[in-house]
Amino acid sequence: MRRQQNPASIIQMKARSKMLQRQMDNQAVFLLQTCRFCFQVSLPKAETKKQETELESVRNRISKAQSDKNMYMQFYQQMLRLTPQLPDLIERNVQSQIDFLKLEACAVKTELGTYVQEPVYKLWIFLLKLFFEKPKLLLEKEDDKHGQLADLLRMSLPFFIAECVPLPSLDCPLTEEALASHDTKDTKHISLLV
């Protein structure tokens, strides 16, 4: 007779979630360098008018990049060459967040059975928004010896994962069945995790 597996405890889910987020954080340098490469190679240098600053120029280039399919394809191919597991890593991160937050009852899957459709494209759009808000990431020619620019990108990646969690509405109710499906014997440890 097969033994039934216990659902993962809260501590196990939290540890898995942190491990996957660390793996995603480790991609920050690749993401930063790939985006810099794409912006330097794909877009012609903006013709700067006297009153247009370098900041405005970069923001204009970022705005144009949203509709530039060639630039996205360069990013996509470069990222898959450097980290072929990136789409799967994004999906596993989202899955771990859904498991940890007990959102299975209200999270929506795509027709392919995954939670994130086109994860690399979603990452591209997220990075463009981030660069628009923090153009310093693209303006600086290289990172300093402490890696502050990579750290800035790294600190933003958890927000990307949160954006990918597919909830149809923010007031999605959690049912007793959904909560009971988890091993709640470790709930006394929740205060240690927060």
Task: Walk me through the structure.
By secondary structure, this protein is mainly alpha-helical. It has one domain (10-45, 54-193). The chain contains ten helices and no strands. The protein has helices spanning 10-25, 28-42, 54-65, 69-82, 86-100, 119-133, 136-139, 148-164, 176-180, 190-193. Residues 1-5 and 183-194 have low confidence and may be disordered.
Top keywords for this entry?
single chain, 194 residues, mainly alpha, 10 helices, 60% helix, globular, disordered C terminus
SSE blueprint and pairings:
Elements: H1 10-25, H2 28-42, H3 54-65, H4 69-82, H5 86-100, H6 119-133, H7 136-139, H8 148-164, H9 176-180, H10 190-193
Can you give me a brief rundown of this structure?
With 194 residues, the chain is mainly α.
The CA-CA distance between the termini, in Å, is 39 Å
**Measured on Cα atoms, how large is the radius of gyration?**
20 Å
Strand content: under 5%
What is the domain total for the residues? Answer: 1
Q: Give the beta-strand count.
A: 0
Largest sheet: none
Mean of all residue-level pLDDT scores: 78
Total DSSP helices? 10
Structural class: mainly alpha
Low-pLDDT regions: 1-5, 183-194
Q: How much helicity do the residues have? A: 55-70%
* H-E string: HHHHHHHHHH
